[in-house]
Amino acid sequence: IELMPCSDDKYYAFKYVNGHPKNTAEGKLCVVALGVLADVDSGYPLMECEMTLLTAIRTAATAALGAKYLARKDSRHVAIIGTGAQAEFQIAALKTVFPLTKVSYYDIDAAAMRKFHGHMDGDIDVLVPCDSVATAVQGADIVVTATASKQKNIIVSADMLEPGMHIHAMGGDCPGKTEFDASALQRCKVVVEYIEQSMIEGEIQDCGREAVHAELWEIVSGFKAGRQNDDEITFFDSVGFAVEDLSILKLIYQLSEQEGIGEMTYMIPDLANPKDLYGLLFSP
Ligand code: NAD
Hints:
Layout: E1 2-7, E2 11-17, E3 33-39, E4 45-50, H1 52-70, E5 77-81, H2 87-95, E6 102-106, H3 110-120, E7 126-129, H4 133-137, E8 142-145, E9 166-169, H5 182-185, E10 188-192, H6 195-201, E11 212-215, H7 216-220, E12 233-237, H8 242-259
Helix pairs in contact: 1-2, 1-8
Bound molecules: nicotinamide-adenine-dinucleotide.
């Protein structure tokens, strides 16, 4: 369970989020989240918001942003390993950047693969269910790993990586929970969201900061190079960064005001005399 605070000069936000892989066997989501947006000037809360769906959307948006700068421009084929709650969002977001024609996929749970197929059918020309990770990633331009397991795994091994691939590793996102080993990372140009956090939570937790080429903002802002040729293997070690949550909460707040969506709840005492809080106990 994680609390993710972040602010700019106008808004303060926090998200409360979990990651419990065993939950799905009991009919509960693996990742659930709630968020609050507050006004920095007064400290008053502005919005309370369900963030399970928003987490999936902002995580997928981050994947698309990373791939825009790191994947080959001619990427058409995505492989996704782990077809749980986040999977379709990842494909939908990547599709906004690349005209995807093929998605190959693998999950240890056949029902999760069928669910994924049901949602993607019609959106993607060629959908290929695979019986192993190796088959799914073979020939892919972009590989997304979105598995949930509370341990150090090797989901995609170094020998499965091909020149020109872009890896979006999002399932390893807390201490002791990874999807790649150091030998795979050594073959890649590694990019993270925020190095201090990724050193604790990311795929680089066993490699050290020397393994990192850049934080994504450095590439987006032009301070460092993204992909430099069609052969290098790029790797975005995504753990989920609080600025992503602040951004989507600000967007939702703006949209809810614009569209008149949401309900006003009166949780904070509205006092005639703000110094008389005690009097509230005796008000009718
Ligand atoms: P989920 O439980 O709904 O789906 C995970 C899927 O992975 C399941 O279908 C499971 O069967 C499959 N899986 C587990 N081990 C596997 C293996 N060895 N090979 C193939 N498939 C395997 O979870 P979710 O909500 O889709 O989240 C996926 C992962 O992404 C979680 O680990 C979660 O913590 C992480 N996550 C990261 C971010 C981020 O910002 N980086 C955001 C949200 C979720």
